[in-house]
UniProtKB/TrEMBL annotation:
Pathway: Pyrimidine metabolism; UMP biosynthesis via de novo pathway; (S)-dihydroorotate from bicarbonate: step 2/3
Species, as recorded: Mucilaginibacter segetis
Domain annotation Aspartate/ornithine carbamoyltransferase carbamoyl-P binding: ranges: 2-145
Catalysed transformations (reactions): carbamoyl phosphate + L-aspartate = N-carbamoyl-L-aspartate + phosphate + H(+)
Molecular function terms, GO-annotated: amino acid binding; aspartate carbamoyltransferase activity
GO BP terms: 'de novo' pyrimidine nucleobase biosynthetic process; 'de novo' UMP biosynthetic process; amino acid metabolic process
Subunit structure: Heterododecamer (2C3:3R2) of six catalytic PyrB chains organized as two trimers (C3), and six regulatory PyrI chains organized as three dimers (R2).
Record's function text: Catalyzes the condensation of carbamoyl phosphate and aspartate to form carbamoyl aspartate and inorganic phosphate, the committed step in the de novo pyrimidine nucleotide biosynthesis pathway.
EC number(s) per entry: 2.1.3.2
The name this protein goes by in its record: Aspartate carbamoyltransferase
Keywords: Pyrimidine biosynthesis, Transferase
Amino acid sequence: TRHLLGIKDLNRSDIELIFETADNFKTVLNRPIKKVPSLRDVTIANVFFENSTRTRLSFELAEKRLSADVINFAASSSSVSKGETLIDTVNNILAMKVDMVVMRHPYAGAGIFLSKHVKAQIVNAGDGAHEHPTQALLDAFSIRERFGGDIAGKKVVIVGDILHSRVALSNILCLKQLGAEVMVCGPTTLIPKYIGSLGVKVEHNLRKALNWCDVANMLRIQLERQDIKYFPSLREYTMLYGLNKQILDSLDKEITVMHPGPINRGVEITSDVADSKQSIILEQVENGVAIRMAVLYLLAGQQS
Ligand code: CP
């Protein structure tokens, strides 16, 4: 595939190839000289219509480690504020001889739309509540690393706001491709009706879900995507679905805790859990650079 628009376009061997490529780049990133010439003369635009810390910076770093030329575009400081359209914006960037566009956008399907209307390779860096493919890849890669290489048969629970989460959908698709068992846990108001069709278990009781799993991925409440007043309230949510040290220590086994970030400390996860040795939150961020290097490197080989 020329683009990376979603995990739904990848099969198991595509994902395994990305992981093997990321293994090599992770070795490179641990060397004193972290830069390789692989994408010399490739120009990449990071086009962000929505805020980001981890995704934007790790794409930029991945591109620079691969020796690509990089330009960064933030919609908030651009001529989008004067009414310029998405297609005009991107076509103007492409006129400057840009090869690849990494785009984050608040609307689901924005990357798919763009890929049909412009002549560039598109990498989806998060489109509304739809997909966040590189996040799912770095999450699965981090689980694989934590468990010494195999994800098949591992039990992963995704806790929280599944309804508004692109991370949840991409994680479910990726983990299922790799043979993991996946459960979602949260209040009924935040679990979409179609979830059963994805082959995942549903559990509304946090303690039961945590006692079932090997890995718990704790999601943030996506307040920016809530069009109705949030139910339950944040305080109720924390009481029912917040992970704290007391719960963690009372479980039958030592589970691994993940979070895609940004964390709302004290809401979905307490600091003593986020910063504990059971948490791999910063390993996820570290792996994000190697995964994005792998994705960009493999896509560059598909240029036509
Ligand atoms: N996990 C993630 O996408 O974080 P950012 O929104 O900071 O990029």
